[in-house]
Amino acid sequence: MAEINKDGVLAGKVVVVTGASRGIGEAIALRYAMEGARVVVSARTVQDSDHYLPGTITTTAKTITDAGGDAIAVKCDLAVPEDRERLLSETRDRLGPVDILVNNAAVTWLVPVSEFTEKRFRTMMDVQVWAPFELAQACLPSMMERGEGWILNISSHGAIHPDVTARRGGGGTVYGMCKAALERFTTGLAQEVYDSGIGVNVISPGFIATPGVIHHKLINDDNEDTLIPVEDMAEACLRLCYGDPKTLTGRIDYADEVIEEFSLKPAELL
Q1: Strand ranges (DSSP E) for 95-159?
Q2: What pLDDT does 51 receive?
Q3: What are 14-44's pLDDT values in tens digits?
Q4: Given a cut of 80, is residue 226 above it in pLDDT?
């Protein structure tokens, strides 16, 4: 049975998870809270009426607190500079400095380059590249002062260079650009802070039946056998945010490989 362990591996750590109203972000927030973390659940969706997909930061935070854990919900549109600044200032005011930053939020349009608008391009880059960069930049001074901290960026197999002879017209070029940039940012930052006690990693989930995947009807007969449980992703993400950052940093990982490497048994979520 899923429960909160106040003395878990993340006991007392302040964690910020973006895009935590549903799907992978929600699962990460729940799993970290189960290990004693004090979680800031952030996204744009506060009430059910705010989005066409189910799930809100209010319900995610309530699931944690109802189970005896610590969580607060902070609304944040990562495309808005003032929201990014407020997310961290409110976190510091209410819980203290950030120990673990999980950059999970994304906004995506799968449109061919020939049809991609500047507004959509800039929004995707803002949310998936600039926001993780800026949030990490803002968290680093405190982490470096204390000599500890973790930053985990959520990528995708979309970052892998495609087979140019494969099926055309997928519309994933800009999405892949964003994720590839996020991965290169991760390894570069890991190198920069290697001697500061800070671990920086990036992980891709594989194919998970999130509300967005289901809504866009992305599951079919050809790929349904490749689906992995969201619990696997949450467990892998947890493992990349504790331990010795000298030996667990600068990794471009995949959920299934982390599960296998560390012989993890994914926990049931709250």
Answers
A1: 100-103, 149-154
A2: 82
A3: 999 999 999 999 999 999 999 999 999 999 9
A4: no
Distance between CA atoms of residues 123 and 205, nearest Å: 22
Q: How far is CA 55 from CA 23, 173, 213, in A?
A: 8, 28, 14
DSSP assignment letter at 74: E
d(C-alpha 15, C-alpha 163), whole Å: 37
Q: Spot the catalytic one: 32, 175, 242, 254.
A: 175
In the chain, where the domains are located: 14-261
**Could you give phi then psi for residue 222, rounded to 5 degrees?**
-80, -25
How far is C-alpha 104 from the geometric centre of its chain's CA atoms? Answer: 2
Query: What amino acid is encoded at 247 in this protein?
Result: T
Distance, CA of 143 to CA of 16 (rounded, Å): 14
pLDDT, residue 212, reads 67
CA dihedral 244, 245, 247, 253 (to 10 degrees): 120
Q: Contact at 8 Å (CB) between 67 and 60?
A: no
Q: What is the pLDDT of residues 182-203, one digit of tens each?
A: 999 999 999 999 999 999 999 9
Q: Give the homologous superfamily in CATH for domain 14-261.
A: NAD(P)-binding Rossmann-like Domain (3.40.50.720)
Under 8 Å between Cβ of 145 and 122: no
Mean pLDDT of 225-250: 94
Specify whether 175 is catalytic.
yes
